[in-house]
Amino acid sequence: MAEAKTLSGAGLRGQVAGQTALSTVGQSGAGLTYRGYDVRDLARGAVFEEVAYLLLYGELPTQPQLDEYRTKLKLLRELPQALKEVLERIPATAHPMDVMRTGASFLGNLEPEVDSAQQYDATNRMVAAFPGIMCYWYRFAHQGVRIETTTEQPGVAGHFLELLHGKTPSDLHRQVMDVSLILYAEHEFNASTFTARVCASTLSDIHSCITGAIGTLRGPLHGGANEAAMAMIERFSTVDEATRGTLDMLERKEKIMGFGHAIYRDSDPRNEIIKDWSRMLADECGDTVIFPVSVAIDRVMWEQKKLFPNADFYHASAYRFMGIPTELFTPIFVCSRLTGWAAHVFEQRANNRIIRPSAEYTGHSERQFVAINQR
Ligand code: COA
Known about the structure:
Layout: E1 23-25, E2 32-34, E3 37-38, H1 39-45, H2 48-57, H3 63-74, H4 81-89, H5 96-110, H6 119-143, H7 156-165, H8 171-184, H9 191-201, H10 206-217, H11 225-233, H12 239-251, H13 269-285, H14 290-305, H15 311-321, H16 329-350
Antiparallel strand pairs: 1-2, 2-3
The structure holds coenzyme A.
């Protein structure tokens, strides 16, 4: 059961910093719910656009509403020429999260949200355009090709995979990507969402809120953990090596990325789902190294530290089996969490007071200023 830890101390742990009707994390029962729905049920039975609609508009769509919403997003995929030109100027050495940050910000220059009545349109535009921003830059910078950013894929999952690989994805890969986008869509007052809400509370525009959230998600203690987990998994080529290597890292008191959680106490409900899909992908591609190595690390972490894999750990292998370059792992997270961030911005705006906590002062007591020529 994914229940919440008893929290105290630094990092605002355990403090209620506001209200939300969007999700619950670590409460008894489901472990993670979006607007009252267990994320495991959504991951099993919905597509990403249904979940995006639920988060943004408050209720699950009917079939005609979902069809209309998917069509709307499909028509918003084309990137402005000026944005493509900016993306072409970003070097291949850049981290794709920096590309996403620039892409979100530049889109806000070209298509600013001047009035909060435009918040839904601005968000849907970003949901439709972000996979194109990521893949246009990636394929131009790394393969020297200028891709079309539109496809006939009905959903974001298939659209992204087709843009990345330049071919229609298999049903299995599209399905796993859909599940992944659902699992990453929303997670209460995590660091990047809180960033978006702080920004929204100043009555800033939505592109600023999302750009700030991307910067916060970038760090390895937050969204960047899936990339860091992959880098670690790839260092080992056998189960024995992984077992010994993980024990050594623990001995050296190193953090093992993809394990532990700020809120969940004994499991992350998203893990069991993505782990199953990762195993299925491993079988499909005949993997005999990455998945067993991942399981070995998982076993050592539980035996030694009672630390469990969070959503990021088996995402790493699942993405690898679908041929996704490691540095795109966190940008995919952006394409999904964007919906949660935006829903929180809407919620903050609907009942706003500027977020401005106080600090406990630990500096000098008051002292006399002395002019520079007398010091
Ligand atoms: N590897 C090794 N040790 C870990 C660990 C990890 N992944 N996660 C937690 N610990 C250790 C901590 O160092 C701490 O040890 P200490 O008491 O000796 O200092 C202890 O376990 C308890 O840590 P906790 O208070 O539960 O963690 P936190 O709330 O401060 O931090 C995370 C939560 C997520 C930031 C932390 O678990 C972490 O850094 N994980 C790796 C990064 C990651 O996967 N992030 C994605 C989150 S979805």
